[in-house]
Design brief:
The protein has 281 residues and is of the alpha/beta class. It has a domain at 7-155 and 237-262: Rossmann fold, CATH 3.40.50. It has nine helices and eight strands. It has helices at residues 12-18, 44-57, 85-100, 117-131, 146-153, 168-175, 218-221, 236-257, 269-280; strands at 25-29, 61-62, 107-111, 137-139, 193-194, 197-198, 204-207, 210-213. The longest helix is centred in the last third of the chain and has 22 residues, at 236-257.
Length: 281
């Protein structure tokens, strides 16, 4: 029987025994929000499953997923649960400190909700100042390389990406096929305008060809929250390829991080050159 990697499935004594040998612990973060008319709102289920798969492949552990994230522009859609920025940062800090207080410092944030990123950065910088520990963060959906996008979608690689489109739709089809309503898939609606300017997304517009931010709700961009991408190009096979990449990439990163002390992981170019010269001698 395989050794458990999800901390939630372990007794505290089993966790203590497992931590007698080094292990990177994933901290999965995600959200409960609309994903278009065809995919389940609980995208945290994807992050949770991928974290467990990655922890097993990377010889590490995973904490329980935080299923709620921060994105004000999704509050207009019923069924979602959005944390205030202050709530999210407080909860994330408490999660991380719960491990740091017991000396478990090899942590990797496994972020499945892009809008969390600025708040994650705030918390990790605060803890570095106060605790002296460097905690990296991986955005799992941004870790998909251009090579794979091109292999899977060809010349449509740029057009398929976006909220309500890819990669979430294909990954949902692969991991939770019974929860995807393929018959409800449609392309995003034509964009409206704000201040007489074309709307690109919940923040993006342009004036005289230059970027302009306008804080819109998701329903003001598209009634069904389709903020971009083409779910019509999704498939379970594509989802499997994307999952395989994320798991492999994360596992390799975990094994790499396991060789470093997060209190002494930064080396300047000068110190690196000195180390190389000493090795030659």
């Amino acid at each position: 029987m395989d050794e458990p990697v999800a901390i939630a499935h372990m007794t505290h004594e089993a966790f203590a025994r497992r931590m007698e040998r080094p292990a990177v612990i994933l901290i999965p973060l995600a959200s409960q929000e609309e994903q278009g008319p065809h995919a389940p709102m609980g995208d945290f289920m994807l992050t949770d499953r991928l974290a467990e798969m990655s922890a097993r492949a990377g010889d590490g552990l995973t904490a329980p997923v935080l299923p709620f994230g921060h994105a004000e522009f999704f509050r207009a859609m019923a069924g979602g649960i959005q944390l205030r920025a202050s709530t999210f940062t407080a909860v994330l800090e408490d999660i991380l400190v719960s491990f740091l207080d017991h000396g478990h410092e090899q942590l990797l944030i496994f972020n499945g909700h892009t809008t969390n990123a600025p708040l994650i950065d705030q918390v990790c910088r605060k803890l570095r100042r106060e605790r002296g520990v460097l905690i990296p963060s991986l955005n799992i959906w941004q870790s998909i390389p251009e090579r794979l996008w091109s292999e899977l979608y060809g010349e449509d690689a740029a057009r398929v990406r976006g909220h309500g489109g890819e990669p979430i739709t294909s990954v949902s089809m692969h991991l939770f096929p019974d929860l995807v309503d393929a018959g409800a898939i449609r392309d995003p609606a034509p964009r409206g305008s704000a201040f007489g300017l074309s709307v690109g997304g919940v923040l993006s517009s342009r004036f005289e060809g230059l970027p302009l931010q306008i804080p819109l709700d998701c329903t003001e961009v598209d009634p069904a929250g389709m903020l971009g991408g083409l779910a019509s190009r999704a498939s379970a096979d594509k989802g499997r390829a994307i999952c395989d990449h994320i798991v492999g990439h994360t596992a390799r990163l975990m094994r790499h991080l396991a060789d470093f002390n997060p209190r002494d992981a930064v080396q300047s170019a000068i110190s690196q050159a000195t180390s190389r010269n000493e090795e030659k001698l």
